[in-house]
Amino acid sequence: MAVVTMRQLLEAGVHFGHQTRRWDPRMQRFIHGERSGIYIIDLQQTLERIESAYKFTRDLVADGGRVLFVGTKRQAQDAVLSYAEKCGMPYVNQRWLGGMLTNFQTISKRVGKMQEYQRMRDSGEFEAMPKKEALLISRELEKLQRNLGGIQEMESLPDAIFVLDTVKEHIAVTEANKLGIPVIAVVDTDCNPDVIQHLIPGNDDAIRSGSLLCRIIADAVEEGRFIFNSRQGADGGPSLDAEDKAAKQAQARDEAAAAAAERDARVAKTAAAEDPALEDATPKEPVPEVEEVDEVVAVTDDAVVAVTDDEVVVAVTDDAEESKTESDDESEDVADSGVTA
Description:
Blueprint: H1 6-12, E1 16-19, E2 31-35, E3 38-41, H2 43-62, E4 67-70, H3 74-87, E5 91-92, H4 104-122, H5 125-128, H6 131-148, E6 160-164, H7 170-179, E7 183-187, E8 198-201, H8 207-232, H9 242-274, H10 276-279, E9 295-299, E10 303-307, E11 312-316, H11 318-340
Parallel strand pairs: 4-5, 4-6, 6-7, 7-8
Antiparallel strand pairs: 1-3, 2-3, 9-10, 10-11
């Protein structure tokens, strides 16, 4: 089955090149002709090049490789973002920072700084800071996320890069060539095809054209990942569908929340065991209020006599009440015996 059809390329406008006065003579072999002052790209060669780039990307990912999506022009930003996230690959769609490949060690440190700021924000440390300091860090975090958010999961150099508009992204192409990283790129009639290892002649300015070509590379990545999982025997490995991926993430979040709740309960139980006062802290009966006593007159085994502001108080102890009850019973017995006599 073909990766893409000629009709799809025509509908997306892949065959439209630049004006005849804006062209690179090295692209002449990919030009079909000229019409109304605009060069027309030979789509037959485009189909062949798409097949070749698709197979290369699929085999690269099947061997465990990683592809970096690059497209910072306005027409390509949304397509690069959506399809790179769909296939789980890193991307750059805002600005290419010089040295992002050749000085990757420094870029990695900035990514680590961004992740540290994210941790501070999520843990609420910004709220404890002075307002000005928190505002400055928030602005720096926003800038880092805009420029490096797409490569925060990229721990090493990519095995290939996919570029839309090699004229605008000439720094990325130069760095990749310097490091020997293969470049898969869409080349228009104003581009230099000699610096691209896997080129796709086509329109790099139209939104529909860029989206179509990004989708093709994303499909190659997903097919390559499927092959990689099959070779590893990981039937339960990462899914190729976005819905399955979202379900996996939701399940992971639920498991993390359950583990956190279990950990909190365990910590509370340990704290209670170490401090017996917390365990014995049972509610007790309220103690009745007692009037102020000016003077205690006498204390006996049976009663306590005290004087308050208004009256004399005699408090009978429990032992006195029991003995009084016993004496009352004896008196009743004696009276009954006297009456009988």
